[in-house]
Amino acid sequence: MTSTTEVLALQGGAPAVTKEAGDIFAWPIVTTEDEEAVLEVLRRGAMSGNDVSKAFEAEFAAWIGLKHALTYPNGTESLRAAMWACGVGAGDEIICPSMTYWASCTSALSLGAAVNFADIDPETLCIDPKDIEHRIGPRTKAIVVVHYAGYPAPMDAIMPIARKHGVLVIEDVSHAHGALYKGRMVGTFGDIAAMSMMAGKSFAIGEAGMMATNNGALYERCISYGFYERTGVASRFNAPDSQITMEELKPFAGVPLGGFKHRLNQTCAAMGRVQLKYYDARTAEIQSAMNRFWDLLDGVPGLRAHRPAKDSGSTMGGWYSPRGLYRAEELGGLPVAKFCEAVRAEMPNAPYWCHPGANFALHLHQVFHTADIFRMGQPTMISFGQRDVRQGPGTLPVSERIGEIAFGIPWFKHDRPEIIAEYAAAYRKVAEHADALR
Ligand SMILES: *Cc1c(COP(=O)(O)O)cnc(C)c1O
Question: What is the C-alpha radius of gyration for the chain, rounded to an integer number of angstroms?
Answer without folding.
Answer: 23
